[in-house]
Amino acid sequence: MTAITSSPKPLFDTLANVGALYKDLQGNANAHRQISAWLMQCFGEAKIPLPAFVVSEFHWALNFLYSYRGSQDTFNGYRRELERFISWSWFVRKASVLQLKRLDIEAFIEFCQKPPLCWIGTKTVARFNDRDGLRLANSEWRPFIVKVSKVAFQDGKLPDKKYFKLSNTGVKQVFAILGSFYQFLIQEEATQINPLLQMRQKSKFLRKEPSVKQIRRLSDTQWQTVLATATQLADQEPKQYERSLFMLQCLCAMYLRISELAASDRWTPTMGDFFRDANKDWWFKTVGKGNKLRQIAVSDPMLAALKRYRTHLGFSPLPAFDEQSPLIEKATQAGKAMGSTRPIRKLIQQCFDLAVEQLKKEHKLEEANLLRSATVHWLRHTGISDDVKRRPREHVRDDAGHSSSAITDRYIDVELKERAASAKGNPTRQNNS
Asked: What mean pLDDT do residues 307-327 have?
């Protein structure tokens, strides 16, 4: 059996299951046997012959992954790259990851840029399913996923494996994550070599990108239409739409990521996360990317939005100190926090879709077509882009949770507008020769 002609199986389960396995193995005299049993559970049905070194390497990878348990998104990204890499090394290169050299890493990156069709899926599925008390590999899972754009999907186009393409960002992630993995192995004295450091021409795998990246954001017209549409719906059917209106304002006015609205293992947002300091200024605290706690200055419009939503819920206009009511409740379970980002995306998308129809009615077709491409994350970009024009960038940086002002500077598009305006104003040069 070769992994070129057959799809590989997943190696690592959910964060919770990986954590449980990691803890079970600590100080366990039967750790080797337990890992072997898990791998046979993963690969047994496919009858894949397992090389002798896989148990120890799986254990190293498990320990490495567990160190990123503080962030679900980070864990997922590292798990994805390690599964691809280890499966390729074991079953395509047929070598231990500790034996790989520079040329092997280059071969792996080329493999990722054009993987065999049997390694590519057209939808995201769970890695494992429960069956008869066991966690068994999902036969539909694939290491790579091909997708179509949001607009193309709306137009009825489906993903086609033939058009899979690893993005420039994806290639960068391969370098970064594998480099970290080998540094971990060196620190654990499993190897002395990091083959990523031996690569001198990484540029041949990376496309040069423009120094100024386009910020995906809503225009003023689009945002005002989305907000007006959601407000009208909330006025007419508050039970169904007040929550959607409030989430829209949180995502834009406070630059929240969608994951910061939903409850998770690391944080459950509550009404008490809005608080007033000794100066009578209002703040909102959250735990975001990288498991970092930050507090966000609450604007007057955001405070008004909070009052409106709480009044709808039957609460006092402003939260009491350390109030534990969920910030976003489940629609079907009062008092239970929303624990998934999926319904949030669905509700925000509904607002976008209705705003698109409104723009069409107003004959603003270009604005409508551009709004079709918008995602929830555009609301964060919109809020940052608008505020960085009128607030000190250091204040916006801290509210957004950016690690540096350089990231915030990407949202300053005043110079781009001035450059475009000056270009439009210049007469076209004529060739007089």
From this structure: 94
